[in-house]
Amino acid sequence: MTAELSSASYSLEPIGIIHSPYKEKFAVPRQPRLVPAATAQIELLGEANCPESVRGIEQFSHLWLLFLFDQNLSAGWKPTVRPPRLGGNERVGVFASRSTFRPNGIGMSAVEFRGIRQEGKQTWLDVGSVDLVDGTPIIDIKPYLPYADCIEQASGGYAGSEPERSAVHFCDSARTTLAAHPQAHEIEAVITQVLAQDPRPAYKKDQPDNKEYAVNLFDLNVKFSVSQSIITVTAIERF
User: Fold this and answer.
1) Quick one: which of 55, 153, 155, 165 has the most CB atoms within 10 Å?
2) DSSP-derived 3-state class of residue 135
3) Phi-psi region of 114 (alpha: psi -120 to 50; beta: other; left: phi over 0)
4) CATH of the domain spanning 16-149, picked from 3.30.1330.60, 3.40.50.2000, 2.60.40.10, 2.40.30.70
5) Distance of alpha carbon 7 from its chain centroid, rounded?
6) What is the per-residue pLDDT across 153-197, written as a single tens digit (0 to 9) for each?
7) Is this structure's pTM higher than 0.85?
């Protein structure tokens, strides 16, 4: 006997919005903590925008962020997906993946907590090792509890280990442009860690590729090419 479905509907109001270096979906890390240099700020909204809502949060080193894949909601979802870790060819069930195309478009990330700031009436949370696009709506924040959330003997299935990383080089002109940026050191680390994961579509990774790609990070358009698993930053342009 099947359970009777409730006719009730539910709505979610964002409690915050994140401001991150990732200005588009392309090249966002596929999991949190893969780009430790990437920091972000959560702008609390509405009734959540008050110091009382985060009282005591400084006791925790990491936080769970629940958020909406807002850029994908209109595209809908399918019961099966092609995970990049399987080369983008093999299908698995959507609930056996972390696909961004989901029935309710909800994502979750464990991020590093870096502090609270109060600017007038605005409360901010600083976080690190993020994998969220700039402007992503945050729908909840919960403390990460090591004793409950870390399962040492867990199996990761087809994604049981971290993805391989490629070597990243900057051409002279790109490095010169970057050196003039006031955040050069931080930005170089983020660019290197993002591109080391080779953000191209999975099916491209075992094929010759003469194409030049571009990704928007911070206030920069970063162009790169890939040859024999070596990624070269060919140009950096300010917006």
Assistant:
1) 165
2) coil
3) alpha
4) 2.40.30.70
5) 34
6) 999 999 888 888 999 999 999 999 999 999 999 999 999 999 999
7) yes
